[in-house]
Amino acid sequence: MQFPVEAVVRALRRSPKRGYRVLYIATPNNPTGTVVSREELRRILNAASRTLVLVDEAYFDFSGVTILPWIRRYPNLLVARTFSKSAGLAALRVGAYSDGRNSFRRCDARVLLIP
To answer: What SS3 state is found at 107?
Structure first.
């Protein structure tokens, strides 16, 4: 499987009917393990001038590919992480996202109590 980069870039270059758009990309993807390369992500971000791009890096510890340092370069980029995968904290539901303005704000720190 491959990420449809060409189709995504074409769609992003079209003007939205109104307002802004949000594009969610999980890389590496679960369950396929597909990784969107840095070059492909750069093309997407450059085409996404009126689109917020959220890159879910929940499995980045397993791929070694991250674009977190890019948050200062691309104001429309958010990078999301979870501590439930590689840290084994799924029951805590802890995650964070980072953008170029406020690094790593807490998104959700609720504890699920299962009887």
So the answer is: strand
**Residue whose token pair is 């990420």:** 3
CA distance 47 to 81: 24
Give the other-Cβ count within 10 Å of 28's Cβ: 18
CA distances for 111 relative to 36, 75, 106, angstroms: 32, 32, 14
Give the three-class secondary structure for 71.
Answer: helix
Q: Judge if the upstream peptide bond of residue 115 is cis by omega within 30 degrees of 0.
A: no
How does pLDDT run across 25-53, given as a tens digit for each residue?
998 888 888 889 999 999 999 999 888 89
- Check: CB of residue 4 under 8 Å from CB of residue 25: no
pTM: 0.76
**What does the alpha-carbon distance between residue 90 and residue 72 come to, in Å, rounded to a whole number?**
29
Contact indicator for 1, 26 with CB cutoff of 8 Å: no
Pairing of strands 51-56, 77-82: parallel
Helices within the chain (DSSP H only): 5-13, 38-47, 60-63
